[in-house]
Amino acid sequence: MGLTPLATRAAPAIFGLLSAITLAGFARDLKAGATTVVLAACLVTPMQLRYAVEARPYSQALFFALAALWCLWRLAQAPSWRLAAAYAALVTAGLYTQPLSAAVQLGALAALACGGQRRAVRLGGIALAIAGLLFAPWYLYARSAWHSGIAASHFGFSLSPRILEMLVREISGGGYVASLSLIGAAALGWRRADPLVRRFLLGSIISGIVCAIAADAFSGYFFAVRQVLFVLPAVLLLAAAWLPSPRREWWQPGLLAIFLVASLVKDVRYFRSPGEDWPGAARALLAATSHGACAVVPSPEPKEMYQLFEPALSARFCNASDAAGPVVIVRNRYTLASSIEETTRVLASKGIRAADETDVSGVRLLLFRPGDKGPS
Length: 376
Prior knowledge:
four-stranded mixed beta sheet
């Protein structure tokens, strides 16, 4: 499909659907029942759905994390080198897609160790070690760029009660109503699960959250709920599986119903809310740079976001320090104020100053020209 909007969105959508199907299969393998409910819950969960329609790697990483978790469970039931090899491959794929996707595996493996699954733990541990070794070369190559990107963002880590508040509010991506009802249903489902299943799923949830926070603290990066996206399958399994009959106990089915309704409301609002017009902004940027101006996208925002829609822009991007003539700075709601300030400071030192502004559905194009005093 080439470098097209369809191509960039197709992969996350496909992996989002695969994640839902995989979760339903995992629920059936756990003998949990209610696989249809699990499938529906996964499909409408706002956090999962958002990344299934965004051109970002989180949907793919979620699939690899979930498939690896299921593979580890199968390894615990029937230990074999073939399953261990498949597990290593899935964890490696997840690491290369989003390193934090492997965090849930540590707690699940620890739960198997507590359950006396010695051969499974040995094979799983070897598989994790192999995955780590396969990922190490890329980590060593890319870590300097990661640290530079974190430093350029000017964000920092802060261990505060706000992290807990964010987890409670956004673990589902749907706000307090959806998240609290999901957590409540999961707590009730946990009581009915088999002891080994309890430890396995709870261990993955705990390690997924703790490792994400620890990684942020180590790297100095700010905490974001997307980093714990990979605990969502275990939470959904506990919440939507092992459902009792509503006639006998209505709390868990009732909370799950509230979650599903709140999630659907959030999903509808998400798709109906106006967003940035990236194709329109790319077209406007192409037109604005058609008479000799170059385009500057302040770090750390990716210029490829615009090049995707207008490939001809690839020859029109420049750094502020290299600009000699008119410049168009691209600013959106994700652009850091500090990056804009630094860019304009560099341009001002070269005698290039603001001349005009254009807004294209939330993306602002700031035109700078040599010798201009400012926008009229």
